[in-house]
Specification:
Blueprint lengths: L14 E4 L3 H11 L1 E7 L6 E6 L2 E6 L5 H15 L3 E10 L9 E9 L3 H6 L10 H13 L4 E8 L11 H6 L4 E3 L2 H11 L2 E11 L8 H6 L2 H10 L1
Parallel strand pairs: 1-4, 1-5, 5-9, 6-7, 7-8
Antiparallel strand pairs: 2-3, 3-4, 5-8, 6-9
């Protein structure tokens, strides 16, 4: 048992799906997993372990933002032996050709967070996806006619910015979308030599102003979950 996850030895699988929203973790477990058991309810951050096509899989909510998510990533890896961490989250589009409900594979993650400045001081670490998981996701998506976008994403510390036009400088350099956890996930995975991939579904667009509802963000976006489960 760790500080934030109340699970016993062996309760958590080596492959863990990581939605930020604990209610999305519940929905994933109930929708996709057989014999799912809830192993964690501490702080309402639900975690479940079950089976997908005979493979043992866990789903753990991580909260919003790097500070919250890194707590769960650290404990899953160091205290429960997680080997594959796959983020399944939502993002806001920065590009005209990245629309609502599009699936994005994060090849790398730029960030406004100071997380790696604290580690590397005046140098800059480039958080990057695991090549094996990324490749498997591409193959699965193509075989199952799931249209995806892949590239650099922005992990932002702020959900609400003072300057609503700030996104344009990132868009100019090809950043596909913005979210709040991927850079932290890729960094800790690199440090501890585990595999990580962030699979995102576009929930809103800073370009068009279109957005999905909170209920849709909690209980839909099946394609990214299917990819995650099949490469785990």
């Amino acid at each position: 048992m760790s500080t934030h996850i109340k699970a016993g030895k062996g309760d958590i699988a080596e492959t863990v799906l990581l939605p930020g929203d604990p209610l999305r973790a519940k929905w994933i477990a109930e929708t996709f997993l057989d014999k799912a058991v809830c192993y964690n309810q501490v702080r309402g951050m639900l975690g479940f372990t079950g089976f997908f096509e005979g493979k043992r899989i866990s789903v753990q909510g991580s909260g919003m933002g790097i500070p919250s998510a890194m707590i769960y990533y650290h404990e899953l890896i160091k205290m429960y032996g997680a080997k594959k961490l796959i983020r399944v989250g939502t993002a806001g589009s920065y590009q005209k050709d990245v629309g609502i409900r599009d699936v994005v594979l994060a090849m790398s993650a730029s960030t406004t967070s100071s997380i790696n400045d604290q580690r590397f001081h005046s140098s800059h670490f480039a958080p990057t996806a695991n090549f094996e998981l990324f490749g498997k996701a591409l193959v699965y998506a193509e075989a199952n006619n799931i249209s995806i976008k892949a590239g650099n994403v922005l992990t932002h510390d702020l959900y609400y910015e003072d300057d609503i036009e700030d996104y344009k400088k990132w868009a100019e350099y090809g950043v596909l979308c913005v979210e709040m956890e991927t850079a932290g996930l890729y960094t800790i995975a690199a440090k501890h030599k585990v595999k990580a991939l962030s699979i995102l579904t576009i929930s809103d667009s800073l370009v068009t102003g279109k957005a999905t509802s909170p209920e849709e963000r909690e209980k839909s976006f099946k394609e990214m979950v299917e990819i995650a489960l099949n490469i785990g």
